[in-house]
Amino acid sequence: MRRLTRKFKSRFGPTARSVAVRPELPWYWRLVIAAAFVLLGFGLGYWRYGSGTSGDLRQELARLMQDNQRLHAEAIHVERAQQITTVAQKDLTKDLSALQEENVRLKEDVAFYRSILEDGSGAAVIKLHSFKVNAGPRQGEYQYRLLLVQSGKHDKSVQGTLQLTVNGMKDDKPIAQQIMGERSAQRNGKVNFKYYQPVEGVFVLPPQIVPQSIEARFYQSGSTEPKLTQTVALTN
After folding, report:
1. Of 27, 129, 162, 173, which is most buried with the most CB atoms under 10 A?
2. At 189, is the secondary structure helix, strand, or coil?
3. DSSP-assigned beta bridge partners for residue 228
4. Nearest CA to 236 among 199, 197, 206?
């Protein structure tokens, strides 16, 4: 009983501990305090990001920009080098084509002079060295060039008539139109040479004629049979 009395006095008597009564915080103050802690955490995180991680990202961004500029410069260099190579290849191809054409002309010239000078002590021989026909810029227009030469002895001049005749179709019928010779009003085809004589010109065919070939014939003076004959195909 005494023990119970002492315990009661220790809690509720004059020597009992004082108890402080604290009022409960309203809900809106709790919300304000929570928001303050959230803002504080966000501020600390932002400060850490701005002082540490942001600096690393800026350095990485600067490095990437430098790499991008370097790669861009290298791409421009490669593109320019490729353009230079392409131009050089085109020029080389053009020069090679010109050299090949020049080589062909030189071979033709060598063959031409050889044909004139060969067997200078033998009998004179008349040759149709070359005969070429190319289409002109206009419809039905053609450019021709042929070369008559005399090899062997050159003590006499060659005289005669050169005849050019176009063979083709007109109104589904074969036709032969003379563009040079005795029956041509514009070109009589008279030739007179001792070593060689080039013959060249242009002729235009009517649109009704579909050309197939052109034939060259050389008649020596006093002869009714052609001394030389050669045919070249034509394209419309």
Report:
1. 162
2. coil
3. 218
4. 206
